[in-house]
Amino acid sequence: MQKTEYSGKRPHGSTTVRVLFLHRFDRMGGAERALLALVREIQKENVEPLLLWPRKDAAYRALQEQGVRCAILNVPGWRRPGSLPLIPLAVLRLRRLLDTAAIDILHVNNFRAAPIGLMASRWAGIPCVSHVREQIPAKRIEQFWLRSCDFLIAVSRAVQDILLKEGLPRDRTATVYSGLDVSTLPADPVSHSTRKALGIAPDDPVVGIVAHILPHKGYDDLFQALALVKEKFPRVKCLIVGHAPRRRYTRRLQGLAERLSIRKRLIFAGFQEDVYPFLGAMDLFVLPSLVEGQGIALLEAMAMRRPVVATSVGGIPEVVRDGETGILIQSRDPEGLAEAVIRLLEAPRLARAMGEEGRKRVEALFTMEAEAERTSMVYRQVLAASQAASL
Predict the structure, then answer these.
(1) What pTM, to 2 d.p., does this model score?
(2) 286: nearest Cα among 224, 375, 232, 243
(3) What is the C-alpha R_g of the chain?
(4) 20 to 30 Å CA-CA from 313: which of 85, 122, 155, 249?
């Protein structure tokens, strides 16, 4: 395990909160990008973060160069075959780190690591906070011990409502929207060089999505909708940015694309560390998810002034204003998706206006400053409750 710069002693009277962020990294996605952004920003709120990272790779070195303290611990999966023998050692190492780094709060970035975090934090005698970044069925609350967490941070009211419906106390849950640092975005929202590199002509309409290629992201509906859009816009392209973790599902999608005669319309860019040049190559952004906690990619697209067509599920309506920053449709409705896309492609002035409103909405409601401030307030609320309970 990597040694940290923390010691077990603090300056007398220090009000700094030391937080260890626990996350099981399978692959980089929305939850991971949100975590890294929060860790960087929350230092401004008198919070000292310590981030667990699975290995000493390029990302680990980059984080250290940016001043983010990291420790090496590859967190085993909970309820995964083969993980059971690895869990006790991981908990022991985590417990030691909590003690030697004088951590005040353990923050689980995604509920799937909550049981491991809870075992170590209870052993160390400190509170455990867990993010819940997706719509979860009731059984997950029990399977991942969420009732035992000291506090749950939901990324949308839709996610918080699920927790409350299942009996979680209101005073131990809160909605904290994930945010963006718009100051880091490209000055030019249009990426001509990216379009050229991808073989996209200047006048080709481009519909795009940033999401791992998984069934719940609605790719089946997107492909069916694209076949309908192609009838109106024969040169339309669909730019897909995301990892394809399930080979069987990817092969099935490729077969669907062949049957729909849209294979040549698809551009698979794969996983991209920096999604903004690819968002800049799109004319509009689509997210036909079947379930969605909030959708970091929605914020990224709106911040790049891209109009959005998305399903009205989960936390999406809290992000996208129907008719103002984009168009909301029902899930599992390829025809409705195609109609919305065609409407925006036919009305570029409307699309640009929606894109501008989307950028304003991100700047007003979904900033990193707001997320970091609200999260630090949760920490202090949890610490105050823990201290009161120990009296």
Answers:
(1) 0.92
(2) 224
(3) 22
(4) 249
Q: What is the pLDDT of residues 212-227, one digit of tens each?
A: 999 999 999 999 999 9
| pLDDT confidence of residue 273 | 87
Query: What's the CA gap between 97 and 91, in Å, rounded?
Result: 10
Complete domains list, the chain, with CATH:
17-179+367-390 (3.40.50.2000), 182-365 (3.40.50.2000)
Across the range 273-295, mean pLDDT stands at 96
Distance CA 363, CA 367 (A): 6
Tokens of 269: 């860019």
Distance CA 93, CA 249 (A): 37
The answer to whether 294 touches 315, Cβ cutoff 8 Å, is yes
Query: Would you give the end-to-end CA distance of the chain in angstroms?
Result: 35
Say how far apart CA 209 and CA 216 lie, in whole Å: 13
Candidates 91, 142, 134; CA nearest to 110 is 134
Calculate ∠ Cα 15-384-379, nearest 5°.
65
Length of the chain (residues)? 391
